[in-house]
Design goal:
single chain, alpha/beta, TIM Barrel, 8-stranded parallel beta barrel, globular, binds SN-glycerol-3-phosphate, TSA/FSA_arc/bac
Length: about 220
């Protein structure tokens, strides 16, 4: 499973990349706004930190505008994945840009039907938002299960399931059990994956016993 980091905070991405935990990055207009930086500048910097796909989302809502923005964004760096919303204009843009060899991440997916349409449009990634479905008492992980099952029936579809809107480690574990190719995780959730109280407790006990020996390895 590939771990993408869902943030535009360069310091967070750099720290996680140094730990070998970054296979790519996803941003969206809200995350760019939160960064307080110019979009092209921060995307270029992120693309320099990781060779993996870096999603940069268009903000136009018509095909002509999306195509112009997508063709501009992909020139920032070779690993830019242009992100388009799951609308008719977004799918038309996805079809055109993917035909031009551009990585395309189709976002704001909330149904299996939408995911099937995105794959037929040549999307590189589909981003179903599990957390936002959970937030309205709908089983977000069921959407992932449905998409994975549908895609497996049609091996010619090459779209990778990029599980987004992840709120906690269980979302990640369940997505991995289902075989989703990618999960995009807030930095805090990645750090939560590492932690277990029994690991900390066991290490403390090992080191306490070791100190009693008076030895040192070097
Ligand atoms: O990349 C999509 C992701 O950022 C959405 O997550 O937490 O805003 O639902 P969230």
């Amino acid at each position: 499973m590939k771990f993408f980091v869902d943030t535009a905070e360069v310091s967070e991405i750099r720290a996680l990349a140094e730990a070998g935990l970054v296979d790519g990055v996803t941003t969206n207009p809200s995350l760019i706004a939160k960064s307080g930086r110019k979009m092209a500048e921060v995307i270029a910097e992120i693309c320099g930190i990781t060779p993996g796909p870096v999603s940069a989302e268009v903000t136009a809502t018509d095909v002509e505008g999306m195509l112009a923005e997508g063709r501009y964004l992909r020139e920032i760096a070779p690993n830019v994945a242009v992100k388009v919303p799951l609308t008719e204009a977004g799918l038309r843009t996805c079809r055109a840009l993917s035909a031009e060899g551009t990585l395309v991440n189709v976002t704001l997916c909330f149904s299996p039907a939408q995911a099937l349409l995105a794959a037929k449009a040549g999307a590189t990634f589909i981003s179903p938002f599990v957390g936002r479905l959970d937030d309205i008492a709908t089983d977000g992980m069921q959407l992932i299960a449905d998409i994975v099952k549908i895609y497996r029936n049609y091996p010619h579809l090459k779209t990778e399931v990029l599980v987004a809107s992840i709120r906690h480690p269980i979302h990640l574990i369940e997505a991995a059990k289902l075989g989703a190719e990618v999960a995009t995780l807030p930095p805090a959730v990645i750090r939560q994956l590492l932690k277990h109280p029994l690991t900390d407790k066991g290490l403390d006990a090992f080191l306490a016993d070791w100190r009693k020996t008076g030895q040192s390895i070097l």
